[in-house]
Amino acid sequence: MLPLVLLFISAASPRESLLADPNVGAHPQTARSIGMGGAMRGIADGTDGLYVNPAGLVAKRHYIIDAHYSWTHEANAHRPAASIIDSVTTVVGAGLSYNYEHRFNSADLDVHRLYFGLAYNIGGIFAVGIAMKYQVASRNVLRYDSLFTPVDPENVDAPRKPLDNALSVPALGFTGFTGDLGVLFTPIQYFSLAVVGYNLIPNPLIPEFVPIALGFAAAGHVAGLEVGVDALIDFSTRAKPSSRWHFGAEYTIANMIPVRAGFLVDKVGNDLFWSLGIGFRHPSFGIDLGYRQAVERPDNRTLALSVQYYMN
User: Fold this and answer.
1) CATH of the domain at 149
2) Is pLDDT at 236 greater than 80 in this prediction?
3) Checking DSSP bridges between strand 271-281 and strand 285-294, what pairing results, if any?
4) Beta carbons of 247 and 220 less than 8 angstroms apart
5) Is the pLDDT reported for residue 62 higher than 90?
């Protein structure tokens, strides 16, 4: 069993693995979150609340069906997802989401994620939420049984040709169950604070899939403008705690067209990112586009699309 574990880990070196994408606690991200540089904990609602701060499930009254997709060029990673959020029909906000991720450039890595979240608002100024997560990951690695053709017993001096084919064998799969806990405090309508603990049920074998982390955020809300500053401390991916710093802003034009920009200092993946986003809001549906670009590694760029249907 131990060799298989080591095989799985060695096939996912930090530079080509999940660390190249600055997802919050290895979570998926929507187009809105990507456009704002991940600075979402203090303003998250809907699907963003389920992913980055479950207390945000009750930040606004929503009944949403959400589909989103993102693609990262460097890893050739494709991530379709769908979710449903309801904070209208009951006093407790709830959310359910399924995400799939496939990385062609990481030895065919497949990750399935299932989220279920609940949140409750106390007095309109304090909210608490929990998100339970179940993940299944598997990877195929390439193994050469022989680097050259076997020796010909009738002609031992004949040159041996290198093999072109390799046998693809499944490495050890990973199944994990964990959870997040978040709080959102809004003492006045113009300002909010958030604290979120990620992956509080640890898995010591493969921490990059479920890194134990603690997030903090402050956000301002003034006349269509949202500004967020977030910090994430990752305790388990690296040998010592590392951090990510998120800065983002969103301004909604005519209560219809949100425009976003963000910046991220990623000390976990050792890179800087800038991002842009735009959206469209209608009483019955919404569309968001997001783009994120690494500074140190130009090929590490992500495009994202989200579509929401408002059932309320």
Assistant:
1) 2.40.160.60
2) yes
3) antiparallel
4) no
5) no
Most confident stretch, 81-95, 134-148, 165-179 = 81-95
Please say whether the beta carbons of 119 and 54 come within 8 A.
yes
What is the arithmetic mean of pLDDT over 159-175?
Answer: 56
- The answer for residues whose C-beta is within 8 angstroms of residue 264's C-beta and 6 or more apart is 22, 37, 38, 244, 245, 246, 247, 272, 273, 274, 275, 292
The residue type at 123? G
112-116, 162-166, 175-179, 208-212: range with lowest mean pLDDT: 162-166
Domain count, the chain: 1
Count Cβ atoms below 10 Å from residue 131 Cβ, excluding itself. Answer: 27
**Contact yes or no for 119/49 (Cβ under 8 A):** yes
Alpha-carbon span 288 to 46, nearest angstrom = 13
Note whether 223 and 201 are within 8 A (CB): no
Q: What is the pLDDT of residues 29-41, one digit of tens each?
A: 899 999 999 999 9
Contact 260, 35 (CB under 8 A): yes
Domain that holds residue 84: 2-310
| Percent of the chain whose pLDDT exceeds 70 | 79
Supply the pTM of this predicted model.
0.83
Element (H, E) at 173: none
Q: Count other Cβ atoms within 10 Å, centred on residue 291.
A: 17
E-only strand ranges, the chain: 63-72, 77-86, 92-103, 109-122, 126-143, 167-170, 174-188, 191-198, 213-222, 225-234, 242-253, 257-266, 271-281, 285-294, 301-310
